[in-house]
Amino acid sequence: MVTADPLSPYAPNPTVGIAAATVGVSKVHGSGDTRVVALDDVSLAFGEGEFTAIMGPSGCGKSTLMHCAAGLDSVTSGSVRVGTTELGTLNDRQLTALRRDRIGFVFQAFNLLPTLTALENITLPLSIAGRRPDRQWLDRVVSMVGLAQRLDHRPGQLSGGQQQRVAVARALVSRPAIVFADEPTGNLDSRAGAEVLGFLRDSVRELGQSVVMVTHDPVAAGFADRVVFLSDGRLVDEMACPTPERVLDRMKAFDSRSRTS
Predict the structure, then answer these.
(1) Are strands 51-55 and 211-214 parallel, antiparallel or unpaired?
(2) Complete domains list, the chain, with CATH
């Protein structure tokens, strides 16, 4: 099992295992005068069965961190693990298989195929892998996200909130080790967004799922178990049991600090 440094302020609850972790991760774009440090020595562990939100000012490295932790982007230095698997030891084929089998993704753009039904979109990752869905698990996921009456509808026949629910179900159907969600409510109104966040929250509470969400929205962060804050590519703070009000106050403090620096 991957173990987090017990002295690290950004380790999860010590009573849970580690679903994924970054250790000393840096990400640098360009060189010379065009050199940009997107991540700077970031060590962070994501607990099994926990909902973690990543927040910070625009351009602080939130999405870069998620992409590196999910194996969607390479790191300049440091290491990334999912469970006990070190991503840097995998070739392209192995990395593709790991993302398909052990990681779920939910993006701001729903990324559904318009010619497929909701059910076909949900089970698409399994179909690509040549695997049949576990019917009992599929039924449980579909029921949790409230799509039982919409499975034969195509994306164009669904509301934005319903499309994102399809995307959440698709991320969960393969029972991944961890789900990464990048601004999952960014294209939704407040009511639909709250529903989707509730489903992610329920997947942690009821299914034992591990979820990591990048968001700029304090209300969305209030659904998480903890929030970690980035600034200029570095981890700078953490909050357990967040509320929208506490998160907003913390974000205002960052904004004030950046204006005076």
Answers:
(1) parallel
(2) 18-260 (3.40.50.300)
Q: Mind listing the pLDDT tens digit for each residue in 16-72?
A: 689 999 999 999 999 888 999 999 999 999 999 999 999 998 889 999 999 999 999
Question: Which pair of tokens denotes residue 23?
Answer: 């250790």
**What is the value of pTM for the model shown?**
0.88
Give the residue from 211, 194, 199 showing the smallest Cα distance to 168.
199
pLDDT digits (tens, 9 = 90+) for 7-16: 344 555 555 6
Q: Is 2 exposed, middle or buried (0-12, 13-18, 19+ CB in 10 A)?
A: middle
